[in-house]
Amino acid sequence: MHLWLPIQRALWGFSLLIQALLVLRLARQGLIRRYPFFAAYLIVETASALALLPLPARSPVYTEAFRWAGTAFLLLRAAVACELWERICEHFPGIGRERLVLAAFFLSFGILAAVFSWRPDISQQWGFPQTYVVVALEIEGEIYPLVFLLLWLFINYILHNQQPFRPNVRWHWVLSMIYFATSGLASFLVLATGGGSKVFPINCGMLAADIACLGTWVAVMRRTGETIPYYERMSAAEIEEAQERNRDLNEFLKLLSRDVSGRARAR
Prior knowledge:
Helix content is 75%, strand content 0%. It has helices at residues 4-28, 36-52, 60-89, 99-116, 129-158, 167-193, 199-220, 236-266.
């Protein structure tokens, strides 16, 4: 533990530095307007970490500050997922209002988790906001990567999409899946190993993965990445096949929207 603790602190500090550099990168490349919630999430996470650093972990002031920060994390991570979904949908003009179904799910989950983390009951462990916030963030770290991974498989291997994505969107898609999944995987490993002294090497691994993702974001996010790469003109048969797939996708999303609406009314 004495060996891993300074390593964890060093990685944590370096991750905050990389987050700040990423925000500057987005600003210099003029990408904050394209990814405002992503930038806001990075800013809030860095600022809250620095604000909580001098506070005693067991003090009421820390608990109150953690509650505000945790609520902001939950909502902003949901907003980042919605923002990424919107950037993906821009590549498929045929998708209309149906895209709002998944976005509504992301936001609803974030709002619900934030509400449950707001009012503590100090008579029970589950009443503490730290417990609710940590568990909710872990669930987000499992749900969001799974949703975007399934979406990636659906678009590429079921619809056989040949249209290239904007480089920024493609990288942001992959890195977000890894970044969100890291916290969920770390929590699972802590649970599987029983915690204790193993928490520190697990946290170090999680921070190293976060730093790798943040560093890659800094390297690949650029203004030119918002341009769709040129691809060879499709034949008439390929265009008809792609249009047929788009019609099937639109019909599937409409049926999904009706199914969700019908279940909501039935409840």
